[in-house]
Amino acid sequence: MPNILIADDEKEIIRLLKVYLNDYNVLEANDGQQALAILNSEPVDLAIVDIMMPKIDGYQLITKIRERSNYIPVIIISAKVTLSDRIVGMDIGADDYITKPFEPLEVQAKVRAQLRRLSASEKVTKVETITVGDVTLNLAECTVCKNGATIELTKNEFKILELLMNSPRRVFTKDQIYEYAWYDSDAVDDNAIRVIISRLRDKIGDNHIKTIRGLGYRYEE
């Protein structure tokens, strides 16, 4: 039975979600510090995280989760509703973003979808490294090197670079990039993806990722 961590300082929300997630083993945390302690002591298959929590907020908690693993699905449930809030949450490594007040059945469905996605990805046998020109991705370790020097990337930067480098010179549309790098494409817009592409160019060299006007992006040596 998968372990689902719910980190929220509103206890009634945890009680409500436990009713709808009764097929899973729910681990409860009322602040970010408790959630971190659970992560240190228990295997966690998926995390549901509020942003505005005491001691350690949701952004810090997600950052710490991503320092441990790029593969634990993280769903944000938050009263912060602006597009910039959603972009920040997704950019630091969340896989989905749900705003409060929410429909519990939607959370239930998104948890099932994320766990299915995780299960499917674990069954796919992939090469351990991708090298195109002077850039190498180590998929097992989630690291990127250029000319032997390690480059720090966020989860979404890594996912987009992996997609592009898997098929050099193939043009990927924005919708294809959204689908690969984010579960919920409604959480991002054209500006968000332009910002990430711009950061990737700064980190690996602006000659590698080409903009194909009106279509999308492709990777070149």
In short:
This protein is α/β, with parallel strands linked by helices.
Write the CATH fold name of the largest domain: Rossmann fold
Q: Tell me the series of helices and strands, N- to C-terminal.
A: EHEHEHEHEHEEEEHEHHEE
Unreliable segments (pLDDT under 50, ≥5 consecutive)?
Answer: none
Average pLDDT rating: 86
Radius of gyration: 18 Å
As a percent range, the share of strand residues is 15-25%
How would you describe the shape? Answer: elongated
**CATH class assignment of the largest domain:** Alpha Beta
Number of helices: 8
CATH superfamily of the largest domain: Response regulator
What is the annotated CATH architecture of the largest domain?
3-Layer(aba) Sandwich
Kindly state the percentage of residues in helix: 40-55%
Structural class of the secondary structure composition? Answer: alpha/beta
Number of domains: 2
How are the strands ordered across the major sheet?
Answer: 2-1-3-4-5
End-to-end distance, in Å?
45 Å
Describe the structure.
This protein has about 220 residues and is of the alpha/beta class. The protein folds into two domains: about 5-125, Rossmann fold (3-Layer(aba) Sandwich), CATH 3.40.50.2300; about 130-220, Arc Repressor Mutant, subunit A. It contains eight helices and twelve strands. The chain has helices spanning about 10-20, 30-40, 60-70, 85-90, 105-125, 155-165, 175-180, 190-205; strands at about 5, 25-30, 45-50, 75-80, 95-100, 130, 135-140, 145, 150, 170-175, 210, 215-220. It has a five-stranded parallel β-sheet with strand order 2-1-3-4-5, sandwiched between helices. The protein has a four-stranded antiparallel β-sheet with strand order 6-7-8-9, with helices on one face. The chain has a three-stranded antiparallel β-sheet with strand order 10-12-11. Helix 2 (about 30-40) packs parallel to helix 3 and helix 6 packs across helix 8 (about 190-205). The longest helix is centred in the middle third of the chain and has 20 residues, at about 105-125. The N and C termini lie far apart (about 45 Å). The model has no long low-confidence stretch (mean pLDDT about 85).
